[in-house]
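EI: anyone free to look at a 322-residue chain?
SC: sure, send it
EI:
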Amino acid sequence: MELRERIGKYRIIRPIGQGAEGNVYLAQDEDLCRKVAIKQVYKLQGQKSGEAAQAEGNVVEDGMSQEAGSKEEKETDWKSGYTWTNKRILQEADILRQLKHPMLPVVYDLLWEDDLWYMVMEYIQGMTLQEYVEKNDSIEEKQVYIWAEQLLDIMCYLHTRKPPVIYRDLKPQNVMVCPDNHLKLIDFGAAYWRNFGTCEMRMAATPGYSAPEQFGHTGQGIRADERSDIYAFGMLLYFTVTGMEPTKPPYTSLPVRDYQPLLGDWVESIIRRCIRKDPSERYQMVQEIQKELHDCGGHHAKRMRRSFIRVVEKKVWLTEME
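SC: here you go
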């Protein structure tokens, strides 16, 4: 698709991101003289607009085009498939509109042009956590501790809404590191309001970060809850401290201490429990991780920093003796 010059009152500057569901552009709000991010959602594969798709009887379900049966079935199935691509961005906008947290982008506008939805949001400067970790050889333990606190804070906020918001796609590409070193969570395209007792049949899943139950391998249907986000948090923490990409569930990579020997035990302890294959064996609530982080993390972080200082002092002393 060619890059448009304008969308409504917004002048497109350049693309800034591309995901499985759509593109994100940097644009200028010429009325308010501010930069914004505009998310454009793809049409589903084979989706056609208006009467053309309905007349041909195309059924679009999970990105696949099928043939419907009777005229009534064609109309019902086409509407179901066609409206899902709209519901994705409408649900994302609805979720973000009702959330107020400093780690979340603000939604300014929602536009419909040429059979496509465009969501206008706050433009967040910085780089993704993926880019940050790849750029830096290692992240200091103090910084890891601060970022873990921030991520747990936003997860706790989402999970304590009524109904809870399950993010479902926590990964380094969806976390922004701002110039002040604070984090922001972006891309709520996979998030949903949790409906207790129901099974979610459309599921976002990123190999290496998403929990096993999100791939439907448990025999209990495809479902995600708070514990699925906790699994992803463990994998994200692992990537942050090691710089190594998790492959796919279940977790089989080397222990954190093999990459960062000076890290406190709290990092390995939290990661190991977060990423257990059985959801019942993980932390059941984010608050449990927060408590362990505060009880153990701070103590171990201070102890390891003291050990590191002693190691450096010893090296300096040996150098002076030579």
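EI: The helical segments are 50-56, 71-98, 129-135, 141-159, 226-242, 256-259, 265-274, 286-321.
SC: 👍
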